[in-house]
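check these tokens.
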Amino acid sequence: MASQLSNIINKTNLNSTDPLLHPSDTALLEAFIPGYSFISRFLISYLHIDLSLYLPYILTYVAIAAVLKYSVSHLSSVLKDHCVATAEIRLDDEISNYLLYWMGQQPFANKSTSFLAATRFSEYSRYYDSDDEDEWGEEDEFDDEGNIIMNFDDYWAKAKNRDKFKRLRFTPAVGTHYFWFRGNLLAFVRAKDESKMSSRFGSQLMTERLYLSCFGRDPTVLKDVLAEAQKAYVARDGNSTVIYRGQRSPGDYVDWTRCMARAPRPLSTVILDQTQKDSFLDDIKEYLHPRTRRWYSNRGIPYRRGYLLHGPPGTGKTSLCFAVAGMMGLPLYLLNLSSKTFGEDDLMSLFQELPRRCIVLLEDIDCAGITQKRANDSSTTDGNKEDSPEESDDSKKGISLSGLLNVIDGVAASEGRILVMTTNHPEKLDAALLRPGRVDLSIEFGYAASTDIHELFSAIYSTLEGDLRSPRAKRIKEAQVAAKVPWHRYSHSEIADLADRFTARVPEGELTAAEIQGYLLNYKRNPEGAIDGVQEWVESVRVKRGVVKSDSS
């Protein structure tokens, strides 16, 4: 067929004086070029143009175009394989948030005519993390002329409008985007991956692939971009405590998901005996020191540390853990052992993904359904109980006690992390969970003593350092003092006297810090009112607990 087409072209060139082709030749061209006969007759009849005269040029152009297309495609493939360095960024990894956040800050992205607008950096960002300097709307406390708004209704009319709008994130859209970084031309590629779909909130979402490329075989510049993106993302958190939670991801696997970044809580605001606070903090500092790690390693001891915080609800167990995490600058990892969606393999995977230095918090471990007491084993002759608990049929769902013990200090258990467990009922915990190596230090939280009550009252009504964290907040404070706002009309000495009066009316060893704080928050502008009504409130608490009977009974 190809030779016949070549003959036709040659005959067309040779018989230029008689360009009309033989009918058999026309039929052959019709087979190669559908519609050739009709187009040829139309051009001759109306435009007096014989298409056969231009056929060699057309075919030559098509052949050249095909060769060029193949050559360019092949050359592009060769250059990509041998002359371009490329980094692929997984969208389900936190590094994708680093890169997309950094890209959104670059001048080329702000000037781009093709961008993606959203309230999240990617579909895997499950929380809204504002990077606004004025996250809580301090600017709403000022009117258009810069005067402080003292009336709440005027402030709220401005603030509620602002809260309706989430911050929009603008990132490069799907496609290839070129930009310069430290004198190097880079390409950022954002491509849809139609082969994979992710399910989220009951709907199907298209996944993406992210790539960074540069010319040359040295990928150093790509690593520098990713490192700078990570620094910019982490710098946004400042000294905030980053909190992660173990969750099941859209891809049906478990992973630690960043859920929030909170301002650190001062350790002084945790109501606990100072000796116990110092003991807890000093023990963590000693554990984190490099010499301790070497000491453990040289003696073949697993480098792990566990703590048990126990006491009545509302006594500050979780607060202490959060405050220490903020003070030490450690990330906090929360895990709900009560969830039936986690299996023992999932729990092992989560612990293996922990960083070397972090705090893992297991709250209310006595409520997780894994703390059954072990049955007495009459077959043991040495009088020692086995570490494996007796499991019921229900323990097959979720995480069993034996599975938790293996994760905490099994052969494959992770090292370097700090494990903190809290419970309201330590007597319900199995002895296997409390042995040294799993729980190395136990701290008991009790009801508030007189010194705790005095400290809590003073903290509520005094002006703390965090109240003046910015010049704008300081201006607000000065305006409130000038206007004699109730909670700023007392001096330090007056607050101390009021705290003495309040402490004298509250029995120590009966109430939790959370209960006292909750009561004081009802009088946050009226410390004298809190003092006047505290005895009646104490009696009502006693009645609820059944300590005393009410008059009606």
